[in-house]
Give the backbone structure.
Amino acid sequence: MTPVRIPRQVALAERCYRLLLLTYPAHFRRTYGYEMAQTFRAWSRETLRAEGNLGLLRLCGLTLSDLIATSLKEHGRSLLLRLKQLMGVMPPGGLDALALAAPMRLQVAQHTDIGCKRSVNDDNLLTVLPQDPQTFKDKGALFVVADGMGGHTRGARASELAVTTVREVYYQDAQEDSAASLVHAIKQANALIYAENLARGIKLDDKDGMGTTCIAAALQGQTLTVANVGDSRVYVIHAGQMRQVSRDHSLVADMVREGTLTPEQARTHEQRNVIYRCLGVQAEVEVDVFVETVEEGDRLLLCTDGLSGSVEDDEMLHIVQTFDPEESVRQLIARANAAGGPDNITAIVVHVTGQN
């Protein structure tokens, strides 16, 4: 399988970004530098694909101003901690201890692809690795995948509303319970999409209406909290085994659980794309929640059915176990396209690499 090359513009932007990261305090770079660079690379590649060189240039400009502001903030924080250390308020070596870094280091890569048959990419995805240590401690990292549906570009609009609303609401929610925060965020996204459908006079069965699946995973320390609506998935790979954490809200998934259909039959069933729960079609939506414990060496995979419906679980497991996250998402999407690419394909791969 031929790996996808990183565009020259993205590689140059990433090199400049890594140089700018040197302006941060050393302890901050050790904790967040790798994750920040990985996220910037993913966003740069997607911005270049969607908006071209001008869009990438705008992204770099916005990133530069943000890096300057946050770098100054972190240096101020470091100076305050050092002063406390000199004054005996905290013990030697307390700088890293009080940096409030996440207990686990994460390697993350993400990508979305239009596939081979669709004219529009209705998928959206989002990874948030908070740069503020206190936010990272309180809310953790956030990963969101959404698979939109609707006429014209309405599906893309719905999935974009889903991922951006979940991000904003989750990090603004003051609740300490990650599960409650995720459920609240997804319900807010549902309300926004539903309201937009109503504002356009869209009926429930109107082909011009919009809706979307949404799966969100918050990783806080060793606790993974997953909230799900639809048939996008989260897998946990542990000790060489891959297990689906989320539950599909689809007709064929119910038939498999009931034993009236085998997983192999479900892949080719004529109703395999029919889901009975999604965001945007009802004023209220039920959200499933799952909580898992992850360990060093575990891997996470979030994806839409464009991947899980085209590539066998065993093959996905082999790819995610064999390659680093960046190469894993390339290989997964390439394999789904090689299988015909009948739908948009989206994947986020996370490696829990060890203690900070």
The CA atoms of residues 142 and 218 lie 5 Å apart. The chain has two domains: 1-99, 102-355. Residues 26-86 form the longest helix (61 residues). The domain at 102-355 is CATH 3.60.40.10 (Phosphatase 2c; domain 1).
